[in-house]
Design goal:
about 375 residues; mainly alpha; 14 helices; about 0% strand
């Protein structure tokens, strides 16, 4: 009553044993693909973590640098500016991780929150009554009167270009893991499990437990079983090329590190621009939002403090070097895995599964 291991000679197998063999080959095939995938998956997961740590390190550095700008140059508004600064860098971090947000909305929201502070603490420091309605009016007016000149738009442009590649790389790495996980759990067809039993276990039914499959026979069976998986070859090669393009893009002129480290300078230039145009801004705001209560003796001629260029700190240089090295290591490794799905049958037929240095092997029907 055997369905797979039919043979003229007497056999020690039963139909129930054949069913057990089918369950075994399904399990073994999943385990062998998992073993092949392990190194590749381990490298990608490791780099997702490493990239994320490097991103976070750079973001923390840029945020601290921006906070210190307010504490040293714009002390009257430093305390109130802390929250908008924190929100800006949280939004940037979420954007890199793939959240449904844009760099433009994050930056413009920051400048919307910043304008009421700049107006009431630096341009007109005598204002005492900063009601919710008046603050909201200032926020809305910012979009029309453009107090920060071209600096806010420049900041959007610079950050968008550099953060885009980081966001895409983050999403691409997650996609790579998804693809690998899917191939591990690809269904084994009935024909495939029968072919694997015939190759691996039918010799046992004749007591030939030490005979292994011939190499060519194994390759034919595995290629048939893995046809759907090996179809990923062209797309996987394209995926590796895209990773290469993204990592090169990150290291090119619109470098993530340079863009993040320049945020504080863009904000400083924007605030200086608003202060220099203080009288015109005050006249426009008075027409739109009305005149708020002021202390006696308006202090509107607030000192404009220009912040000197801060030298790059060791923290930033270390994070920058770390990110560059990780990018280089990672893309070199991924390029070596370009043929991963094209050669999966060959790799599964390597090692202990087949006879390599022997004159006899199993061809599916008999020992040859």
């Amino acid at each position: 009553d055997l369905q797979i291991c039919q043979h003229r000679a007497p056999t020690c197998c039963t139909k129930k044993m054949e069913e057990s063999y089918q369950a075994a080959v399904r399990r073994e095939r999943t385990q062998s693909i998992q073993a092949l995938n392990f190194e590749l998956k381990y490298m990608i997961v490791g780099h997702i973590t490493a990239f994320q740590e490097a991103f976070e390190s750079l973001l923390r550095f840029a945020e601290n640098r921006t906070s210190s700008l307010f504490e040293t140059a714009y002390r009257p508004m430093a305390k109130e500016a802390a929250e908008p600064v924190k929100e800006l860098f949280t939004d940037i971090s979420l954007y890199i991780l793939g959240a449904e947000t844009t760099v433009e909305s994050a930056v413009l929201r920051f400048f919307d929150s910043l304008f009421p502070l700049v107006y009431s603490r630096l341009i007109n420091p005598g204002i005492t009554d900063l009601s919710e309605d008046y603050t909201e009016c200032l926020r809305l007016t910012r979009q029309d009167i453009n107090p920060f000149g071209h600096y806010s738009k420049n900041m959007v442009t610079e950050l968008s270009k550099s953060l885009w590649a980081s966001r895409m790389l983050s999403q691409a790495l997650s996609l790579g893991i998804e693809v690998i996980n899917t191939t591990e759990h690809a269904a084994v067809t009935k024909e495939c499990s029968r072919a694997l039993v015939k190759m691996q276990y039918c010799p046992h039914c004749q007591g030939l437990t030490l005979i292994r499959p011939c190499v060519g026979y194994c390759l034919n069976v595995m290629r048939g079983c893995l046809a759907s998986v090996s179809e990923l070859d062209a797309q996987w090669r394209e995926f590796i090329s895209t990773l290469e393009y993204l990592t090169n893009g990150m290291a090119a002129s619109h470098d993530l590190e340079i863009a993040l480290s320049g945020i504080w300078n863009s904000i400083n230039e924007a605030i200086l621009h608003a202060q220099l145009n203080g009288p015109q801004l005050s006249a426009t705001v008075d027409k739109v939002c009305g005149q708020p209560k002021q202390q006696e003796g308006n202090l509107s001629s607030a000192n404009i403090v220009s912040v000197k260029e801060v030298t790059e700190t060791q923290t930033f240089v270390m994070a920058h070097t770390s990110l560059n090295n990780k990018r280089r290591e990672f893309i070199n490794y991924m390029k070596r895995s370009r043929t991963f799905y094209a050669s999966i049958a060959e790799r599964l037929c390597d090692g202990d599964l087949v006879m390599r240095d022997s004159s006899t092997c199993w061809n599916g029907e008999d020992v040859v």
